[in-house]
Amino acid sequence: MEKYLVTGFSGFVAKHFLDFLDEQEVPAYVLGVDIHRPEFNIYGFKYVRCSFERTDLLDKDQVDNIIYQFQPSYILHLASFSSVAFSWKNPVASFANNTNIFLNLLEKVRGMNLDCRILSIGSSEEYGNVHAEDMPLKEEHPLNPISPYAVARVSQEMLSTVYVEGYGMDIVMTRSFNHIGPGQRDLFVISSFAKQLVSMARIEGKAHLVTGDTSIIRDFVDVRDVVRAYYLLLKKGKKGEIYNICSGTGTTLKEVLDKMGMILGTEVENQVNEKFIRPNDNQIIIGSNDKIKEAIGFEPSIPLDESLRDIIEYWKEQIEQTHENTL
Amino acid sequence: MEKYLVTGFSGFVAKHFLDFLDEQEVPAYVLGVDIHRPEFNIYGFKYVRCSFERTDLLDKDQVDNIIYQFQPSYILHLASFSSVAFSWKNPVASFANNTNIFLNLLEKVRGMNLDCRILSIGSSEEYGNVHAEDMPLKEEHPLNPISPYAVARVSQEMLSTVYVEGYGMDIVMTRSFNHIGPGQRDLFVISSFAKQLVSMARIEGKAHLVTGDTSIIRDFVDVRDVVRAYYLLLKKGKKGEIYNICSGTGTTLKEVLDKMGMILGTEVENQVNEKFIRPNDNQIIIGSNDKIKEAIGFEPSIPLDESLRDIIEYWKEQIEQTHENTL
User: Fold this and answer.
1) Which residues of chain B does A150 touch, with a Cβ-Cβ cutoff of 8 Å?
2) B154, closest residue in chain A (CA to CA)
3) How many independent structural domains does chain A possess?
4) Dihedral, CA atoms, B157, B160, B161, B167, nearest 10 degrees?
5) Would residue A297 count as lying in a domain?
6) How far is it, in rounded angstroms, from Cα B145 to Cα B183?
7) A201 touches A207 (CB < 8 A)
8) Nearest one of A321, A314, A222, A304 to A262, comparing CA atoms
9) Rounded CA gap, A16 and A228, in Å?
10) Mean pLDDT of chain B
């Protein structure tokens, strides 16, 4: 039976990965590790047998034990402190919880000489400072990280390459663009918009949102497409290669708001507040997905409108539940 | 009085830096920190007042105390696990003792909002995999690190850039090529050659050396030129900029051996042993020093022959002393 070690298990990407894995209707064993307990039912799958170990990946002994005992055939390394804003406030913690935890994993797999494929998740943030004429960003575009988080991600990627070339380890790398989808926390912009709009539309029938710059363009990709890409890369990606995971199209935040208003049948007013505008933020980020398309035939299948509908549905349920609970 | 914090204080570069600083005939206060005690007399200077604190830079509390109490105007950050070979055996320690110690320093300087210039020492290893047609390497050449050590150095450099641009800190960066000079440990190739040749010539009148590939070409720069460059960069380098420190010329190891033979008046036979040949090693590395020349007028002044004569003199003294001590 295939054995998957999934780090960052309690996040929303892991949950979608498990759903996808279960849909493959092939028995699989998953050990999830995270600092936080997952909020979903880990026994709710048909083909996937799940267990969970609360683990601090900064603790080398814990990492060693987990890998020694489980001996995974695949590691999906989702764990990360993925907030750029947090990394500015606490660069050391950001670095430790990205680069150093990854090194702990690699070292144990190397030390045991384990036959195990590792998927190292990177970020479009690695590209850093880019210009409109560079779009869509291809994997060979130079990296110019402009936040502590982005530096940690580039370091993780460079280490992966060194471990592949120097030690022959089996690592595949991604640069994942903005994921969206149901279940994402409202720390992230699209989820935050959806939650606010749903709450306001419910009460007032129209919505007034205070935001940062909504003219910025991002490449949004549905988390359910993302986890399918991760699965395919674990199965068919080429060792040592880096793949963008993105939709290939750019959308302004303004367009997203308008689409959400249409879905909700609500008028959306948007007021820009300077204090929500991040300095250094790129005006435009769009990725090219030619490489992954050509290499493993992956193409995103879920259109933005469908993602947004599902996200809004998710928040409607959440808010309905909260409301029922408080009655 | 100017206050210099010098990390990696017990290494040979720091000693040469102190000599240079003393020659400026300007009173200066130096606090040296290192895990190991220095082997030189820290009270032997005329203008430089030195003290030493045994310090583990991985220990955040120790770093915090040092910087809080000393409040340096300059930090010359020489501390590093600089062996590529070691980094392959212990990548985690290499990463921690390069990147993480640097972050500890930066964070305290940032937290205290200290008006302090930091010189971050990098390495020509950052360029990684290069080709003959890329020579001489300019600072804008893409980085392609191929060892854990090199990745750690690139991370340090990227973090420097982020701290300059994101927090406005005053950091200048180097990529230093192969330093040579009297006092260097025989872990390093030129020093090792010299020590062996001096020992053999003393006893047999001729020398037979087993080496790795002596056709490889490196850019050797005298440590006394290097420390002068460091001093000038601390004084006049441009914040956020990266400077190669190199001679600008390439020399094969074979030529170095021949020159040493001439200086010693000894015939040198050289036998290449496969097991000393490092996989992945670059055939040729030569830097361009145009940028530092133009920016601050620095040019190396000590020709290779003079460096080699001084290195041989150094080993003659060392070996003479050992011999006397054992009589």
Assistant:
1) 162
2) A155
3) 2
4) 170
5) no
6) 28
7) yes
8) A304
9) 9
10) 94
Strand, helix or coil for residue B206: strand
Distance from CA of A239 to the nearest CA of B (A): 16
Q: What is the pLDDT of residue A326?
A: 66
Q: Give which of A151, A157, A164, A242 to mutate to test B binding, by max B Cβ within 10 Å.
A: A151
Chain A residues near any Cβ of chain B (below 8 Å): 88, 91-92, 95-96, 99-100, 103-104, 106-107, 142, 145-148, 150-151, 154-155, 158-159, 162, 165-166, 280
Pure H helices in chain A: 12-23, 60-70, 84-89, 91-95, 101-112, 148-167, 189-204, 223-236, 253-264, 290-296, 304-326
In order, the DSSP letters of B147-203 are SHHHHHHHHHHHHHHHHHHHH---EEEEEE-EEE-TT--TTSHHHHHHHHHHHHHHH
The Cα of B141 is separated from the nearest Cα of chain A by a number of Å equal to 11
Whether residue B11 is contained in a domain is answered as yes
Half-sphere exposure (CA, 13 Å, Cβ side) for B75? Answer: 29
Same domain, A226 and A256: no
pLDDT at position B187 is 84
Cβ separation A147–B166 shorter than 8 A: yes
The SS3 call for residue A115 is: coil
**B26 Rama class: left (phi>0) / alpha (psi -120 to 50) / beta:** beta
Q: Percent of chain B at pLDDT above 90?
A: 82
Beta bridge partners of B244: B175
Domain co-membership, B213 together with B312: yes
What pLDDT is stored for residue B279 in this prediction?
64
Cβ neighbours of B129 in A, within 8 Å: none
User: B191 and B68, same structural domain?
Assistant: no
In a shared domain, residues A102 and A53: yes
ipTM: 0.89
A191 and A211 housed in the same domain: yes
Question: Comparing B23 with A96, which gets the higher pLDDT?
Answer: B23
Report which of residues B199 and A175 the model is more confident about.
A175
Per-residue model confidence as pLDDT tens digits over A233-291: 999 999 999 999 999 999 999 999 999 999 999 889 888 888 777 667 788 999 999 99
CA distance B71 to chain A (A): 21
| Same domain as A140, residue A77 | yes
Note down the domain range covering A239.
2-179+220-245
Q: How many Cβ contacts (< 8 angstroms) between chains A and B?
A: 75
Structure token digits, residue A98: 């990205």
A44-78 pLDDT, tens digit each = 999 999 999 999 999 999 999 999 999 999 999 99
B293 part of a folded domain? no
What residues of A are in contact with residue B158 (Cβ under 8 Å)?
145, 151, 154-155
Q: How far apart are CA B233 and CA B242, in angstroms?
A: 10
Question: How many degrees, rounded to 5, is the angle at CA B184 between CA B183 and CA B190?
Answer: 125
pLDDT of residue A83: 86
d(CA A268, CA A211): 12
Residues of B in contact with A92 (CB under 8 A): 103-104, 107
Pick the more confident residue, B6 or A200. B6
- Chain B hits for A165, CB-CB cut-off 8 Å, are 146, 280
Contact between residue B314 and residue B185 where contact means Cβ atoms under 8 Å apart: no
Nearest chain B residue to A94 by CA distance is: B103
Chain A closest-CA separation from residue B142 CA (Å)? 8
